[in-house]
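ASSEMBLY PREDICTION REQUEST
Request ID: AP-0331
Submitted by: J.K., bench scientist
Number of chains: two
Total residues: 840
Priority: normal
Notes: Please return the full assembly, not individual chains.
Input sequences:
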Amino acid sequence: MKLRRRIFVVGGDLTPFIGKMHPDFIWKKHPDFGTRENPTLEQSLSAAINGALESTGVDAAQIEKGFIGNFAGELFSNQGHMGALAVRANAGLHGKPFSRVEGACASGGLAIVSCIDALLAGYDVVMAAGAEVQTSVSARDGAGYLARAAHWDEERSIDEFTFPAMFARRAKAYKAKYDVTDEDIAHVVAKAYANANKNPNAHMREVKVDLAHASKAGDTNPCFLANTELKDHLKVSDCSQVSDGGAAIILASEEGLKKLGKRPEDCVEILSYGQATGPLGQVADYTVLDTTALAAQEAYRDAGIGPDDVQVCEVHDCFAVTEVLMYEALGFAAPGKGTELAKQGETGIEGRIPVNTGGGLIAFGHPVGATGVKQVLEIFRQMKGLCGDYQIPNSPKIGLTANMGGDDRSSVCITLRNVE
Amino acid sequence: MKLRRRIFVVGGDLTPFIGKMHPDFIWKKHPDFGTRENPTLEQSLSAAINGALESTGVDAAQIEKGFIGNFAGELFSNQGHMGALAVRANAGLHGKPFSRVEGACASGGLAIVSCIDALLAGYDVVMAAGAEVQTSVSARDGAGYLARAAHWDEERSIDEFTFPAMFARRAKAYKAKYDVTDEDIAHVVAKAYANANKNPNAHMREVKVDLAHASKAGDTNPCFLANTELKDHLKVSDCSQVSDGGAAIILASEEGLKKLGKRPEDCVEILSYGQATGPLGQVADYTVLDTTALAAQEAYRDAGIGPDDVQVCEVHDCFAVTEVLMYEALGFAAPGKGTELAKQGETGIEGRIPVNTGGGLIAFGHPVGATGVKQVLEIFRQMKGLCGDYQIPNSPKIGLTANMGGDDRSSVCITLRNVE
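STATUS: Completed
Returned structure:
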């Protein structure tokens, strides 16, 4: 989408992303088990919304419209109608037009797209928030809930862990086509954990996973699929986390910035977005993310930039192979060459195109509806030098996010520019 | 929302709304039970989308963006990710940006709002579609699914039939405050069935309910709530239907009309929309739909019209008392006077302000996500003289829709004008 008005990210906030293995997450191995509870969906959403208002100094009454990214609240938390849930967060939001946007794991990115459309339509100050709670049920039940992002009747039966199996299928095809090894792919996993270990908000901030561990299946890193044709192609370390959490950002037009008393230099500008949707259950080539490629082409074209201009990037690494395929879909690497980027350190924090500097979905965590919102917030934070121990050394001018739903069926790419 | 560009409804289509008591619906009393199945969510959605394309002569490739209204596909059909489901309907849609919008029973209206924002943002031809299948489970289980539109933790326990109980609470409060009887309210029910009996697409097209039946509880019209304080205030005849079905419309800017080879006179113009969201679980006054009133005020103001200008209207009669409260929220009647409008025939097909000419949610049916889309399509069809036996005699110039989610927590009002 070519933007007829200038649009800015004013700032935002997020909750820590937590779940099993996180020190604050209450489960049977935690000393507080039975005496306190983890945050609910509403608590995560409210904390993100109010955090975004507080950290930017924006009054809730100044928010003119809002969009909530959430995938499966009805299932994990018995809660839908997320727009009306969200305005409970702050009395200043009561009565405001808030609604929910859903595109599986791209729900957060789609909430931002809806915000951009609203600003282009004529609103001046809007909010995108995303949240998900997934730890309310077992991993097995949760995998069934998440399988609603696939074509249930045609794809559910591939495995009880439907999405892990679908991406094992991609890993298998990719490794065969390009003679790539598990170790080649594991470089993105090692990078994700190394980055997350520097990120206080990351789900895996205290868990160490090195290249050796991520390269080989074994007792502490099992292949868990039942599907015998795919089982060998996915290990626990290849997977993103089952996380709870929320994120929210505030966006504004130039007129909106004036209303808020903000200067463009306080902000990051959105240059363009690309959005594409592929038909559920109809993937043409398992070695290509063609829907993401389509969205990226639109985003690049409408921003007047190309892959070489990108200096910081957030990609949707729902599984390790996905990050590799993302490098190729976004034009950072030629087909079959994606693993080399990570292997050579080019996508590390100090590399040429730092990707997923806070740990990505694999180690920062993946509270589904929050992820696309967090991606844009992370680019904002890197551009404004707010990333602490995982801050990239040179402040980047141009950034890109790629948020994906299902098996590359909904995709949103957003280009950003630091205003200095 | 004041519209910075002119926006037109080009046309659309819908499936018949079906469910128990409909002659084509397969259930245990149907002769085909066990030999054929009712349409799935995907089939309803696809039929509406392709019907809209065919009836308007628009090529799928000309659709630039789409929004799907659906409330609870994850629960009733194990299916989310509705944007990627929708593009399966037609190869010409593959790759197009489609996403789902959710605001409980206002999901369809919100999909249209997203279309309007997208057109104002710069798109020229867009589609809003809505669909729901609810007959896949028992009415009791379905009521639990629909309760995800309330605040689950705080409101679910009011009754196993949560929403019927919440509106029984409104009926009780309204009758007490204004000394109104069940018979006073039943006039809207008798009107709904009379209209639906003339409508070939209506769920209740063959079921007769007259004023006497709708006024009194009894063996054939039971009060079914368990909550003893509310039980007497809601009968089966007061309720909207558990329906399956889909609806879709195509909207365009002036530039879009040129691309499609359409003239404004072929279309109905959207003058404005109003959207408001109240906090879940926090209704200030059970006798007022304050969120809908807020949305209506915005819609009237931005269209430069008032209630007296409205010549045809679709309101969200999820229960009988809701239609009465809608009359008041929309400014058609003073507080406490809503029942008189229906009693005097003013909202009948031949009245001053015909409301729900096809039978409304009570008798046309209520496939949740489709309802808000169907409302706008019905205004289009009345304005263009396409309503057959239930066509209102004078072609109306100005119309209004009011689509509501939950207990008046999300509300969308749209004003329309016939272009002649």
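REVIEWER COMMENTS: Chain B has 15 helices and nine strands.
SIGN-OFF: pending second reviewer
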